[in-house]
């Protein structure tokens, strides 16, 4: 049977919907103070545990990009650990946590969460290179982990019962910014400090005793 010609209006509609799908803007919870000197990356509905990812992200706050990447790679090789500070119920203790500045000595090696964060850092680094930023001078100025919608599966129990088997995915966003050079403080003029009432009274009493 001969094929029917495709209408141009349907083609135009398909092209518009495809363009709209590619132009959808991603919303960030935090905007950098200087967008021209910053690069961002974001991951949604990541299949990694929220608690492990949150603790791993907090360990990277305000860290230099190169140091953060080497730290995460060392965690994947189990040479260093992630310190668990908030979600630390039932977490074992390790000497590596003490070396990372932990007060309770609790730490783990959440490899899946670390791998996701490492990929996001590399993504943000590529975005920074595209903007022409100095990648050797970047720090993690912002990193945030939010809970995503929990996904439901099922597990079968005795006597025909079914229990929920939930997962706890998360959203992650981070911002890399160039380090700001510190402004040198101006030399403060040497001003004589105001004396208190007690000091003035002591001076007066000393002057009186000398005169007498």
UniProtKB/TrEMBL annotation:
It comes from the Eukaryota. InterPro entries: Ribosomal_uL22, Ribosomal_uL22_CS, Ribosomal_uL22_euk/arc, Ribosomal_uL22_sf. Pfam families: Ribosomal_L22 (PF00237). GO terms for molecular function: structural constituent of ribosome. The keyword Thylakoid does not apply. Residues 181-202 have a biased composition (Basic and acidic residues). PROSITE patterns: RIBOSOMAL_L22. SUPFAM superfamilies: Ribosomal protein L22. Gene3D superfamilies: Ribosomal protein L22/L17. Belongs to the universal ribosomal protein uL22 family. This is 50S ribosomal protein L22, chloroplastic. It comes from Tetraselmis chuii.
């Amino acid at each position: 049977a001969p094929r029917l010609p495709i209408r141009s209006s349907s083609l135009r509609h398909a092209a518009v919907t495809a363009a709209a799908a590619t132009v959808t803007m991603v919303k960030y919870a935090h905007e950098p103070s200087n967008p021209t000197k910053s690069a961002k990356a974001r991951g949604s509905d990541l299949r990694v545990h929220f608690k492990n990812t949150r603790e791993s992200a907090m360990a990277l706050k305000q860290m230099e990009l190169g140091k953060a990447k080497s730290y995460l790679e060392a965690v994947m090789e189990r040479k260093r650990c992630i310190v668990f500070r908030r979600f630390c119920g039932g977490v074992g203790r390790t000497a590596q946590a003490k070396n990372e500045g932990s007060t309770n000595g609790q730490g783990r090696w959440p490899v899946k969460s670390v791998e996701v964060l490492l990929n996001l850092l590399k993504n943000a680094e590529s975005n920074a290179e595209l903007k022409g930023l100095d990648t050797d001078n970047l720090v993690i100025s912002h990193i945030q982990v939010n809970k995503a919608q929990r996904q439901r599966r099922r597990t079968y129990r005795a006597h025909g019962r079914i229990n929920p088997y939930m997962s706890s995915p998360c959203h992650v966003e981070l911002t890399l910014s160039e380090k700001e050079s510190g402004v040198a403080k101006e030399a403060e003029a040497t001003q004589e400090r105001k004396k208190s009432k007690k000091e003035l009274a002591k001076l007066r009493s000393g002057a009186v005793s000398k005169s007498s």
